[in-house]
Write a structure and sequence with these properties.
two-stranded antiparallel ribbon; single chain; Rossmann fold; 11 strands; alpha/beta; 288 residues
Length: 288
């Protein structure tokens, strides 16, 4: 199941003062010859971060791709990141809705690529492997309940880890498809950030310590798969997890880059906030 903020949560945050722009901002300042295309899911699109420029995809004008485009000064910028996206939405149109109202589908993300594209960033895999759904299943508001990890480890086999391992080759196929469509482009995959520190911080983030360590371990496993596939297929990899130390969901509202189940900044639960998207733009820029 694709993980998106619930309509009820959207209404609450909008009522709290979330700015929702209905017209997308124009491309970044000109730099002759540079064409940057951003592909990916909600970790890249910045759901609920003001201002939202695409309500169907919950895409912010302060997501890391747009901030990176501004830092790089590219001439042409196409941001097709979309909340809920998985790798299937790279080749097929993605259904979209907002507060229960159907919207026109998002075109396949690969359609944004062109032969003259010079840079492509890709953040994908979280929805393919259902990691957000697993995290939501691990909420325990009361002490002494059963850790959720036990539901996913069957006969000694971690079924979520196995799902990640099975998905990994798809990332290599994505790199190959991008290269075929944009042979001049530098292809850059990002990992996912540090969601929660080792042993967690229950009840601030209501998952038990052992589950917190396990969940972040799964994110790290996906990051390792992204890195390995990127390098094996001639792409670069940017680590967003390591620089996130001290900025996970257990941190103070002024320090965190990723929100917990109940956001303390205007952002979607279990997603980067505006500070996080800005930090990721800087980290990617520094790497480039």
């Amino acid at each position: 199941m694709r993980s998106l903020p619930s309509p009820r949560l959207l209404r609450v945050l909008i009522a709290a003062g979330l700015g929702l722009a209905t017209v997308a901002a124009g491309p970044a300042a000109a730099a002759p010859g540079d064409v940057y295309v951003a592909l990916g899911d909600s970790f890249a699109s910045g759901p609920l971060i003001p201002n939202q420029v695409d309500l169907g995809c919950l895409r912010s004008d302060h997501d890391y791709p747009r901030l990176l485009a501004s830092r790089l000064g590219v001439a042409t910028f196409r941001d097709v990141t979309c909340s809920g996206a998985d790798t299937g939405d790279f080749t097929s149109a993605q259904p979209r809705s907002f507060l229960g109202q159907a919207l026109p589908p998002a075109p396949p993300q690969y359609d944004a690529l062109s032969a003259d594209t010079t840079l492509v960033t890709i953040t994908i895999g979280g929805n393919d492997t259902d990691l957000l759904d697993v995290a939501q299943d691990c909420v325990n508001l009361l002490p002494f309940q059963t850790p959720c990890r036990r539901r996913y480890v069957v006969d000694g086999v971690d079924t979520v880890a196995a799902r990640i391992d099975a998905f990994a080759p798809t990332l290599g196929a994505v790199a190959d498809q991008v290269r075929a469509r944009s042979p001049r482009a530098r292809v850059v995959f990002t990992g996912y950030g540090l969601f929660i520190r080792r042993n967690g911080c229950w009840p601030v983030v209501p998952v038990y310590g052992s589950d917190a360590t396990w969940l972040q371990g799964l994110v790290d496993r996906l990051n390792a798969a992204i890195a390995a596939q990127a390098r094996a297929h001639g792409a670069a990899y940017v680590d967003l997890r390591t620089p996130g130390a001290g900025h996970d969901a257990c941190s103070s509202a002024s320090q965190k880059w990723i929100e917990g189940f109940v956001p303390s900044n205007v952002a979607a639960p279990l997603h980067p906030n505006g500070r996080g998207e800005a930090a990721y733009a800087q980290i990617i820029d520094d790497t480039l």
